[in-house]
Amino acid sequence: xxxxLLLAPLLTSPVPVITAPPCLLCSEGAHRFQWIRNLVPEFxxxxxxxxxxxxxxxFYELLKVQIKAAKQRVVMASLYLxxxxxxxxLVDCLEETLEKSLQAEGPSDLRVSILLDxxxxxxxxxxxxxxLIPLLQRFPGQVRVSLFHTPNLRGLLxxxxxxxxxxxxxxxxxxxxxxxxxxxxSGANLSDLYFTNRQDRYVLxxxxxxxxxxxxxxxxxxxxxxxQLQRDDTVQMMxxxxxxxxxDKMAYxxxxxxxxxxxxxxxxxxxxxxxxxxxxSRKQGSSLLSQQGSQASGDxxxxxDTWIYPLIQMKPFGIQIDEMVTETLLTEAERDARIYLTTxxxxxxxxxxxxxxxxRAEYRILLASPEVNGFFGAKGVAGAIPAAYVYIERQxxxxxxxxxxxxxxQLQEYSRAGWTFHAKGLWLYLAGSDLPCLxxxxxxxxxYRSVHRDLExxxxxxxxxxxxxxxxxxxxxxxxxxxxxxxxxxxxxPNRYVKLWVxxxxxxxxxxx
Length: 513
What we know:
Elements: H1 3-7, H2 22-25, E1 43-45, E2 50-53, H3 56-69, E3 73-77, H4 85-103, E4 111-117, H5 118-121, H6 128-138, E5 143-148, H7 155-160, E6 176-179, E7 182-186, H8 192-196, E8 198-199, E9 202-205, H9 209-224, E10 227-229, E11 235-236, H10 249-292, E12 306-314, E13 319-320, H11 321-332, E14 338-343, H12 350-358, E15 362-368, H13 385-402, E16 409-414, E17 420-421, E18 425-429, E19 438-442, H14 448-453, E20 456-463, H15 466-480, E21 483-485, H16 500-509
């Protein structure tokens, strides 16, 4: 049985065709995941280049250090940039680094490219745009600010739907921060909460030029189909580009698909050539070693023990790679394998729910308790969103109980005084192993929005290295330590009361948050 038969309806023409089912490609340890390279580029690196961060403060300090050290490029993709003092300090770091680059001898090589969402980045009088305009004004040749506008918000809908609510239609949700050849993958936005007391996940890939090139090209591709912020706070499309909400929607989406898939396929081809060259070099090197002994060993580049696979999801453009890979991982997970899955907003797609409930692996699902939900205490209708998540959680828990799966599928709620919870991703432990060999980390929440509405990116990190596996295990343990197991009694607590109108409305609006 091949899980690819189950996923056949998801395959669209721009995505490379799978030539063999994953279960036939490899079966031992971390190598069983090499089927992913049939869809996306595979980047083999040393585990010593991977560092897992654990706190918002560590993330913020690293951002500042990396910006100040950058010489060639700073590329930052986020939902938005906040407007507080900590965010201003980041902008000041960018200004300082750009100023330094101008004072250096010869023409400056430093380029800064920032990709944000148009609707979220334009919210309020003081917003992401007003924070960045001074950089555009002072360094016009070196700074680019792109604002992605979903093609699904157009016409009468765009005129009628108010600010904040317009963000429910679709967003630029990718979070990638890169500086020269160092890349930070995260689910955190560029806002003070994410620098202080909103728990997320963060991983630094150091000295990884191929990965940095890939994400630079990806952000450039999305930037090319986005609105360009001008020095006078107006926006305009690049010359000759179809407009996202004024132009023909199908034509725009086709162009966007082509640009993004060009980046993925070009990187995939490059990496395949590099793999072939490395294989032949190792082959020649091993025969040389047998002839010359250990003297030649120092010239050989060590084989990678860790592999990075970028997983892109842009359903508005017909790109469903992350969805395909995630569903396959859940489908193929064997009996006694353990999957630790976390999301700040528990609202799994029906497909993901069916796989969790219908497959053989053990699941430990970490989600936000109402008090650490990002919408807790919000004004207006948004204030009811935590209650809607409680209702969705209770429905799922009831289904687990109905199927007598409480031992195999366990829900746990993150709770921490004074904090909110925004971590997302998964860790996969193979049967009989105490350490994970694969993690997914990035922007997707495993919900309807992530799969169908927003632009998302994460990476699958697969490693054979015990020290890196231990890092990932400690990251998982640290998050789950702040949680309690959900039981029937959980929903009897006063703070879990869900008003009737919330229960009635949730099924109608759950695909928008």
